[in-house]
Design goal:
The chain is α+β, with helices and mostly antiparallel strands. It has 9 helices and 7 strands.
Length: about 210
């Protein structure tokens, strides 16, 4: 049975039908479409297993990693794929995550360090440092007023936990008009995160410090 794909972007719309039997994920379908009926289709990908964060997209309106979104989980013969609207559109489904990085405070949370089993603080670090910078938390956030975003605030909270000397800097960052108090606590960011980072919980912890 064929599935109809609608690729809707700021540059226009593409439609194609594809036999999806034997295909596992939305990314698998994109690969087949680009090699066949839609050779001009643009998107970003690398790892194919949810660790690089580059294949984020809106799939039937839901912020998702295409490589982790199973076709059989969508229960639909028509699938709409769109670029993430909160990041800078490049072409097709591909977006540039520059805005995501610009909002991050000056921290070392992006360091990927393996903690020892006895290192409780290190374990907490690893939870946030699973962040793959996919932008799904930012895309899912319902806040419409100026807001620095869930990833940036989660990074600030972790920096406080790791470096007591940075408390004043991170509290000042979080206390801004577009900081933690602008959060509406919908926790959509935590539900969208494919790595279980739970930025909503981090923001809640950060608010207690303000």
């Amino acid at each position: 049975m064929k599935t109809r794909f609608i690729i809707r972007t700021p540059g226009g719309e593409m439609r194609a039908s594809l036999e999806t039997e034997g295909l596992r994920t939305v990314l698998d379908a994109m690969e087949l479409l680009r090699s066949g009926t839609l050779p001009s289709l643009s998107y970003r990908h690398s790892c194919h297993h949810g660790s690089c964060g580059t294949c984020g997209a809106l799939v039937n309106g839901k912020p998702s990693l295409m490589c982790l979104t199973r076709l059989d989980s969508l229960d639909s013969r028509e699938i709409l794929v769109e670029p993430l609207s909160s990041l800078t559109w490049i072409a097709g489904i591909a977006v540039f995550p520059g805005l995501f990085f610009e909002r991050l405070p000056d921290t070392d949370y992006l360091h990927y360090e393996e903690p020892t089993k006895a290192d409780v603080l290190g374990t907490r670090q690893a939870i946030l440092e699973k962040c793959i910078e996919c932008g799904l938390c930012v895309e899912s956030c319902p806040v419409e007023k100026p807001f620095v975003g869930p990833a940036a605030l989660a990074a600030a909270e972790l920096e406080l936990e790791k470096h007591q000397s940075r408390i004043s800097d991170m509290v000042a960052f979080a206390a801004g008009a577009d900081g933690a108090r602008a959060c509406e606590r919908a926790f959509a960011c935590s539900r969208a995160c494919p790595q279980g980072v739970a930025p909503g919980k981090k923001i809640t912890e950060l608010l207690k410090r303000l």
